Amino acid sequence: MPAWSTEVANEFIALARQDGRALDQLQLQKLVYIAHGWCLAATGQPLTGDRPEAWEHGPIYRRLAEALADRGLDPVDHIAGPVAVSDKASVLEPIEVAFITRTFKEYGSFPAPQLSSLTRRGNAPWKTVYDCGAGRFRDISHILVRDQFVELASSSSSSATYVAQQYRH
Question: I need a labelling partner for 162 at 20 to 30 A (CA). Which of 21, 34, 41, 155 fits?
Answer without folding.
Answer: 21
